[in-house]
Amino acid sequence: MGVYGVNGNIREVELHNIDYTRKPSANIALKGHNFDFSPSEIDFEVPADCGLYIGGDAEVKLDNMAMRQWSIIRE
User: Fold this and answer.
1) pLDDT for res 6
2) In sequence order, what DSSP letters do the residues of the chain get, joined into one string?
3) Which of 5, 45, 63, 70 is most buried, by CB atoms within 10 Å?
4) Mean pLDDT value across the chain
């Protein structure tokens, strides 16, 4: 999951009570470990274990957020 702001275009975002399970993408072989921000020109590599990325000028408030890998649930 990614949120990336440019020139203050993302602000006053609040995420509350999120229970997020990260599933592996079927497109890993095609795109690698990238967030796809199409159609913009933003492109960067993220760590394979990154569940949430907030970058740029994004103004985001998180409250009560649980994250886990799909593999942990499937074992």
Assistant:
1) 82
2) -EEEESTT-S-SEEEEEEEEEEPPPTTHHHH-SB---TTSS---B--TT---EEEET--EEEEEEEEEEHHHHH-
3) 5
4) 76
